[in-house]
Q: What sequence folds into this?
């Protein structure tokens, strides 16, 4: 099995279906011990496809819906449709498909680099945790640190914070790598208040699956500098859970925000 980091980077290297077609791409799947495609991979590939289709702009936001699971043994085809492209903004729709049909769809807004008024109002960021707080998060092939564990069955607040830092990597991959990381821990955050249940109980104590995921990118950033993913789940109801979070630099700069809804049946 290939190294998970190298394998992920290769998956983000989308191939155009033809030299003259800037709207169709193919992406391979991660080599994992799963039969289905990981949603974080699809998020990262959507971000990459949007960037390749509109190279003069940066991704501003993406809203993704997952109508059905994808098969890990079949490559994914991405079709990009431009609804509007002006000097400042572009609006795109993307469809990720396999032979059985669409496995994910995305609405994307792109924005050309622009100077403007700059302010933020967020809680202070704590000091980066030391190496004694090293965390192991399945499918994340880079440094992660946290003072809490989503694998424990002890009751806790529906909150979770995770420090992360990737190996050195091109900044153009930062939005895709961040999108990938945000898909992993929001369901685990939502079930922390449940006694005797942890995220390891998916398929036994509960059933869950992400139904939609949204990210907003506020400022340029690097993933090979420390980033804090600070998130909470304000609601679980009607067989679903909802969570949201922010991505901040070690210096306290808010660079992205995200939200997710998922199926949650106990």
A:
């Amino acid at each position: 099995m290939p190294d998970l980091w190298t394998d992920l980077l290769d998956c983000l290297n989308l191939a155009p279906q033809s030299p003259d077609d800037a709207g169709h791409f193919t992406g391979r799947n991660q080599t994992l011990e799963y039969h289905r495609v990981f949603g974080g991979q699809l998020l990262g590939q959507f971000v990459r496809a949007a960037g390749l289709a509109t190279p003069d702009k940066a991704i501003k936001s993406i809203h993704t819906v997952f109508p059905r699971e994808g098969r890990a043994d079949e490559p994914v085809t991405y079709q990009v449709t431009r609804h509007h492209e002006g000097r400042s903004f572009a609006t795109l729709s993307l469809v990720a498909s396999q032979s059985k049909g669409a496995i994910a769809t995305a609405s994307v807004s792109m924005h050309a680099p622009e100077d403007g008024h700059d302010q933020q109002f967020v809680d202070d960021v704590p000091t980066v945790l030391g190496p004694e707080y090293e965390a192991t998060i399945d499918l994340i092939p880079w440094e992660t640190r946290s003072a809490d564990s989503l694998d424990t069955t002890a009751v806790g607040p529906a909150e979770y914070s995770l420090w992360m830092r990737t190996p050195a990597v091109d900044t153009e991959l930062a939005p895709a790598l961040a999108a990938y990381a945000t898909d992993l821990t929001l369901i685990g955050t939502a079930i922390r208040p449940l006694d005797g249940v942890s995220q390891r109980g998916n398929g036994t104590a509960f059933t869950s699956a992400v139904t939609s995921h949204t990210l907003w990118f506020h400022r340029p950033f690097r993933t090979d500098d420390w980033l804090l993913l600070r998130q909470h789940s304000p609601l679980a109801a009607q067989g679903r859970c909802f969570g949201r979070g922010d991505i901040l630099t070690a210096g306290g700069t808010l660079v992205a925000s995200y939200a997710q809804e998922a199926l949650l049946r106990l």
Notes: The radius of gyration is 18 Å.
